[in-house]
Specification:
alpha+beta; 25% strand; six-stranded mixed β-sheet
Length: 359
């Protein structure tokens, strides 16, 4: 008996395919690991952000008197509405006819066609992960997030988030190096990355925060190790004549600063199909070990339908909370496959992060 295409492209099958592929090719994003997934009901996200000021000495007091009441320092409650993402692909009537014909005549030859269509669905799921990763990198760099529907969609959906509305984080936890100190090939005679990293580490230590990691992309890393100060520190006598590998320079900087270096590479295409880095060149993020926040996944309308059974479509939730939906459209006869997600990172440890702009 000829199988129904909707059974082949059932959301549960697509979800299983995605999870299998994800296990084979795991993400190498260190930034995403700093924002572990968490399910959040509804659209509203609320969290408490602390400014982690250094401890204040306890006030002296006389006996038999009431204790003075101390104000809480630098506590802000953040409440915002999470953004909604959804996009679809379809298996049109011509594709359906070709696939059905191949399934009937030579089932083995249909497998590559099916896998190609599964990959199309996987690309939609990957697109949701792109949004999560770009938002996490954005808040680390600037304390803001901005996403909008592409210019060609005819929609006006746009979201802007400012995690630092009073500018306190930018004033105390961000620094842009002067032109003469930039980490660039052209400025390699003057730059001093180890000094810059140690100074940032000292600033954070005075806040009571021990940073142990530094995150940047490869281009920023190349600008850092191009500095002549590093070659001279590694070999004061023959710096001009030695060849230092990237790995040797990395180990040396880690040893001198006590900071483990993580390279956050990767390019994505935004909603207007423009290629961008997840972590922009020139940004260096210093942070303590462990999570800095959570990647919150809300419950999509499709998942609500799945829970109530109020749907003729097939719905499967994958990843942190991405809903994959498939259904047959009767006229014209198409199979619709789409992914939807409600995603937004919280940034509870914002004041424990220091951002350097070095290029």
């Amino acid at each position: 008996m000829m199988p129904k295409l909707i059974d082949i492209f059932d959301a549960k099958n697509i979800g299983a395919y995605y999870e299998a592929m994800k296990a084979e090719i795991p993400t190498d994003s260190h930034v995403l690991s700093k924002f572990p997934n968490q399910r959040t009901p509804g659209l509203q996200l609320s969290w408490i952000k602390g400014y982690n000021d250094v401890p204040v000495a306890l006030q002296p007091s006389a006996f038999d008197t009431k204790a003075s009441v101390r104000d809480r320092i630098g506590i802000a409650k953040i409440i915002t509405e999470m953004p909604f993402f959804r996009e679809a692909m379809r298996i049109g009537e011509l594709e359906r006819q070709e696939l059905l014909t191949t399934l009937q005549a030579a089932p083995d030859l249909a497998k590559p066609m099916i896998l190609r269509l599964y990959d199309d669905a996987k690309n939609l799921i990957d697109g949701a992960i792109v949004q999560a990763r770009r938002m996490a990198c954005s808040v680390l760099q600037t304390g803001t997030i901005a996403v909008a529907a592409g210019d060609t969609t005819g929609r006006t959906a746009a979201y802007d988030y400012n995690y630092d509305p009073n500018g306190k984080w930018a004033a105390s936890n961000k620094k842009t190096l002067a032109a003469g100190a930039k980490w660039t090939e052209g400025n390699k005679a003057n730059s001093n990355p180890i000094k810059d990293l140690l100074e940032a580490k000292r600033i954070m230590r005075l806040k009571g925060v021990l940073v142990s990691e530094v995150i940047m992309n490869s281009e920023t890393f190349e600008g850092m190790i191009a500095s002549e100060s590093i070659a001279k520190a590694m070999n004061p006598v023959g710096a001009a004549n030695i060849i230092v590998t990237d790995e040797e320079a990395k180990r040396f900087i880690e040893q001198k600063t006590g900071l483990r270096i993580y390279i956050e590479d990767g390019i994505f295409k935004d909603e207007n199909k423009v290629e961008r880095y997840y972590l922009d060149t020139g940004y260096v993020i210093l942070a303590p070990a462990g999570p800095l926040g959570r990647m919150h996944y809300g419950v999509t309308p499709e998942e609500y339908d799945l829970r109530t059974g109020n749907t003729a479509a097939s719905v499967q939730v994958v990843g942190g909370g991405i809903a994959v939906t498939t259904y047959v459209e009767p006229h014209p006869v198409n199979i619709q496959v789409y992914a939807s997600a409600i995603i937004l990172p919280s940034f509870e440890a914002m004041d424990r992060v220091y951002t350097l702009k070095v290029q």
